[in-house]
Structure formats: C-alpha cells, structure tokens
Amino acid sequence: MTTLHTFGCSITQGFALPDVVKPICDSQNRPLTAEEIKAQGIQVSWEDIHLYQPSQYAWPQVLADNLDIPVINHARRGACFQQIARQCAVAAASIKSTDIVIVMWTYLSRLSLQWPARTSVPLANIVDPSQGWRTRILPRFNKFFGLSNSKQEQDQHIYEYIHKSMYTYLDPMGVYSRYYNNLILQTMTHGFLTATGARVIHLSVEPESYLSQLETARQELDESLKDPYVIPHPDSWYNFTVDHQSCVVIHDPNIPPAENDMHPSVKHHRNFAQHIYQQYF
Q: Of 1, 38, 50, 68, which sits 20 to 30 A from 164 (CA to CA)?
C-alpha cells in the first residue's frame, strides 16, 4: 500500500488548527469563548494551548484523503533546514518505493539550536539591511516540549547563552555560509530520499527561491569574498526542483488566519491540499 510521508515545519504540521488547540475552560470544565476569555482578563500563553502534534485538518491529511491513502505527517513546528533533514533521515528506513514523499522546506534564514534534551528556535528569521537580525528567544520551551520544569534562573542562563551565541551569525560571512550549507543539506536529503525509490516532491513555504536568497546574501559580502567562485557555484550542483509558487495558496491574505494564531486556517490548508492534488496528481 502507498503511504504519503510529509515533512516540514508548523505549516505542514497544521499548527493552531482546531484539533491541536486545547480549550481554556472554566471551573466546570466548560470551554470559554474568546469573548469570555477577554472579558475575564485571562492571560493565555500560546504554549499553554497548542498541542505539539500534527493536525487532522492540515494539508497532508486532506491530501491523503483525496488520494485515498494513509499519511504520516513527520512535520513539527519551528523546524529549520537541519530539523527537516533530520525528520527525513529518521523516517527514511520506513519509506518504501511505492510511497509518496513531500518535503515542504521552511524559511532559508531560520536557525535553531539543539541539545540532546532541548530544541530552541530563537530567531524571527528576518534579515533587514537597516536593522540587522531580529532575535527572539522562545521562552518556556521546557513546558512546550513536555520537558521537566527547571528553575527560572537556570532558564535565564540558557536564554542569555542563546542570545550571546546568535551574534556569531550577524556577520555576512556566517549568513552566506549557513545559506550555502543549507542548500547542500537539502541536496543530500533529496539524494537519500530518491534512493528509496519513492516519488519525491519538494515544496517551500516561501515564494522567493533559495538560490535568489543565497545570491542576496552574497551581495552583502566584502568584495574580496564574492568573486571569482572557488567553492563550486550552486548552479553546478543545485539541480533539483523546489516548488516556490504553490505556497502562495496556503498564505492567501484574503482568507482569515487560524483563530488562535496567525498561521494558515482550515480553509487555507484545504485549498492548498486541493492545489497540490491538481498540480501533482
């Protein structure tokens, strides 16, 4: 039997969709409406209500239903290129030649730090030439990832360490090197996925091509580092197709976002699944 395997970040996981959001309840365990929560002044943190699991409303499940095949959605929120490649590597042994694999790669600029017991995504991922990096440390990630609690002062120490370590990526050399290596990692992932014999489709959550973003990063380098290329030019080895066009459907600004977040809504996911079905199947 053919199985659909999907990999990616929160957009593929279906973050903030209704079945992965825990309701805020009153003392009688009755779910409160958004109006009631606001009227009672209840402070709600997103990590308190969002479940760390795929949604049945997310596009992978909708697409699988259209194809009448089972799906395994390996995606997880906040995933960077490394984490998505790891999702693929871990699942590779279970992928059969009759299966379908869809990898929806995340933002090229996303960066995460990883330890044996923690994963943190501390960046807002936007490079603004006039402002530099926007650093956002994810607070209380122990709780969100279901890890044991730690003392606040210990967390503060970790936050400070993350913040300090990020400055190594402010340099244009570090940005270019990371983008280039992300494309190498993506290419290697494509290689071992296609080696399974499965049909492999690559999507992106952003419309700007990764090669274009790499070129923009190259323009920020010192003149002495730009030309001529001593390392292989990406045009000579980055030679598989990534669909950067389809993502406009799941980011459609004319459709309201998910009720509890700015992520795509049920309708976004349904439209996107239908688009992918028509585009590739």
A: 50
Interval 163-222: pLDDT, tens: 555 544 457 888 899 899 999 999 999 999 999 999 999 999 999 999 999 999 999 899
pLDDT at 137: 45
Strand order, beta sheet including 100-105: 71-73, 4-7, 100-105, 199-204
Contacts of 69 (CB under 8 A, 6+ apart): 1, 2, 3, 4, 100
**Distance between start and end Cα atoms, the chain:** 17
Those residues whose C-beta lies under 8 Å from the C-beta of residue 163, and which sit 6 or more positions away, are 122, 135, 137
CA–CA separation, 81 vs 143, rounded Å? 24
Is the separation of the CB atoms in 204 and 105 below 8 Å?
yes
What structural domains does the chain harbor? 4-123+173-280 (3.40.50.1110)
118 Cβ contact list (under 8 Å, min separation 6): 141, 142, 145, 147
The first and second tokens of residue 84, run together, are 């998505």
The tokens for 148 are 């044991």
**Which residues lie below 8 Å from residue 48, measured CB to CB, with a gap of 6+?**
22, 143
Distance CA 249, CA 151 (A): 43
The model's confidence at residue 130, banded by pLDDT at 50, 70 and 90, is: very low
Q: Angle 141-144-148 (CA atoms, 0-180°, nearest 5)?
A: 80
Give the CA distances from residue 84 to residues 59, 127, 133, 231, in Å, rounded to whole numbers and listed in that order. 17, 21, 23, 25
Looking at residue 238, its pLDDT comes to 97
Q: What is the DSSP string of 8-66?
A: -SHHHHTTT-GGGBPPPB-TT-PBPPHHHHHHTT----HHHHB-SS--TTSHHHHHHHH
One-letter amino acid of 65: D
